[in-house]
Amino acid sequence: MTAPAPAATGTPNVKALYSDYAAGMETYIMFRIAQRVVDLTDELTAKGRPPIKMSIGAPTSDPPQILKDKVKELMDEPGIHTYSVPKGEKYFRDAASRRMKARFGIDINPNTEVSSLIGSKEGLAQMFRCIITPTLDESQQDIILTPDPGYASYQDAIKIAGGMCYPTVLNAENNYMPDFPKILEKIAAKGLDPKKVKALIVNYPSNPIGATVPFSYYHDVIEFARKHNILVISDIAYSEMYFEGEEPPHSVLEVPGAMDIAIEFHSLSKPYAVTGWRLGFAVGNADAVGILAKMKGTADSGLWKVMQKAAAFALESPECDAYIRKQALVYKENQDFMVEGFKKLGWPMEELNLPKFTFYFWLPIPKNYNSCEKFASDVLEKSGVVLVPGTAFGQSGEGFVRLSLVNPKDELAEVIRRLDEDGFHY
Ligand SMILES: Cc1ncc(COP(=O)(O)O)c(C=O)c1O
After folding, report:
1. Cβ contacts of residue 421 below 8 Å, gap of 6+?
2. 267: Cβ below 6 Å to ligand 1?
3. d(CA 367, CA 177)
4. Alpha carbon 54 to its chain's center
5. The whole model's pTM is what?
6. Where residue 165 sits, what CATH number does that domain have?
7. 383 and 301 in a common domain
8. Last residue of some domain: 317, 347, 378?
9. Which domain holds residue 276?
10. What Cα–Cα distance (Å) separates residue 295 from each residue in 35, 86, 87, 131, 285?
11. Which residues contact 352 (CB under 8 A, 6 or more apart)?
């Protein structure tokens, strides 16, 4: 017997049920770009320009063999396939804490000052929910100071949490170091309440610029944050990705007193080439970590224990460290190669601040363009080369495109060849 059809009471409309926050939400920029590439693939392939993605902020290399072997081995461990807890197993937190000591010289209590994350993107989004009281009324919104240009996910995640993103500009003129006291003054001058500033984000080495800062800047940031009771959210996803001979980036938590007011988000994604594994951890102030773990408990039940054990292994494996250093050499080689390539295409490479960190390349658009979106779109449609327009990272990104130098050499050479052939010169 089939169930009777429900009585018609109106026209169903699921969209009308969306929250005011979700209704205004756009698809994440990187997924939008990926979809555009899928839509154009047949057409581009037919004209001999199959897409070359210079857009993906992820290594294309295989993870360290020893780490893959570890995961295979872990599959058969008793109890490994059941739920964990949002903040992670003790062995994971212990390993993260020992890593912080070995790498940065910081003492971290594994019971109260560490939480596992299902990737740092997830952790950051949950952190914003912990400190923002949601409202669509701009005059009442909690404010988070975010780097501009900066990782696109900050803006989206803050908006959806019902807060306001206030851009802090990073450029060559300010040496990529926003002046936070001045920014607070500007906020007041705009008629916004500086007391609504709940947090500031620092991301060094930075996406998309690859910039970093002297350690003394972190001292200033912590002093400012302590004075105004503003949470410092340090996103250090690229901390291990420094070129040979460079000083390894510092943790903000190395600054005396930082543990009172800062939380730092670490990611295993890029250094270990395991972006799909979703491995990260947060460390820092116990209250911040505690509320984060509590918030996570409303949405997840922890990271798969195979991943936690693999991460614990990776964080203390000399072989994995050697892998990271080897990859940094590859990224430097790729950069050297592209610098030569763009030079031949007329770009004034000597005038640029070339990154010594990450695998990103922040390239000014040619003189005959005044929109980075138009340039990226033309390059995609004509040459099949996928670039990310600078404005995807904030308004200060206008005039630039971001390339990720993670592709094999033959693809890099093909990018330069196509740009030349298709008339894209500086
Ligand atoms: C600056 C920055 N932070 C965080 C992330 C997120 O990394 P994951 O969620 O893989 O740990 C990314 C990824 O591109 C990033 O560029």
Report:
1. 383
2. yes
3. 27
4. 16
5. 0.96
6. 3.40.640.10
7. no
8. 317
9. 65-317
10. 31, 9, 10, 11, 16
11. 362, 363, 364
**Ligand 1 centroid from CA 121, angstroms:** 6
> Counting atoms of ligand 1 from 1, which one is nearest the CA of 123?
9
Closest CA to 233 of 157, 302, 175: 157
List the CATH number of the domain containing 352. 3.90.1150.10
Ligand 1 neighbourhood includes 269 CB (under 6 angstroms) = yes
Task: Name residue 114's beta-bridge partners.
Answer: 283
Tokens of 189: 């001058």
Supply 396's token pair. 């200060």
DSSP single-letter state for residue 256: T
CA atoms within 13 A on the CB side of 73: 9
SS (H, E, C) 120-165: HHHHHHHHHHHHCCCCCCHHHCCEEEEEECCCHHHHHHHHHCCCEE
Task: Give 201 Cα–ligand 1 centroid separation in angstroms.
Answer: 13
Is residue 111 included in any domain, yes or no?
yes
Distances (CA, A) of 262 to 86, 182, 226, 259, 399: 20, 20, 9, 6, 33
Q: Which residue has the tokens 């001979």?
A: 245
| Domain-located, residue 208 | yes
**C-beta of 207 in contact with ligand 1 (< 6 A):** yes
Atom of ligand 1 nearest to the CA of 275: 10
pLDDT in tens, the chain (426 residues): 556 666 667 899 999 999 999 998 888 888 889 999 999 999 999 999 999 999 989 999 999 999 999 999 999 999 999 999 999 999 999 999 999 999 999 999 999 999 999 999 999 999 999 999 999 999 999 999 999 999 999 999 999 999 999 999 999 999 999 999 999 999 999 999 999 999 999 999 999 999 999 999 999 999 999 999 999 999 999 999 999 999 999 999 999 999 999 999 999 999 999 999 999 999 999 999 999 999 999 999 999 999 999 999 999 999 999 999 999 999 999 999 999 999 999 999 999 989 999 999 999 999 999 999 999 999 999 999 999 999 999 999 999 999 999 999 999 999 999 999 999 999
Q: Is 115 in the pocket of ligand 1 (CB under 6 A)?
A: no
Among candidate residues 288, 289, 108, 299, the one with its CA nearest the CA of residue 198? 288
Ligand 1 centroid–CA 28 distance in Å is: 13
Supply the DSSP string of 175-231, one letter for each residue: TT---HHHHHHHHHHTT--GGGEEEEEE-SSPTTT-----HHHHHHHHHHHHHHT-E
With the most atoms of ligand 1 within 8 angstroms of its CB, the residue from 270, 279, 300 to mutate is: 270
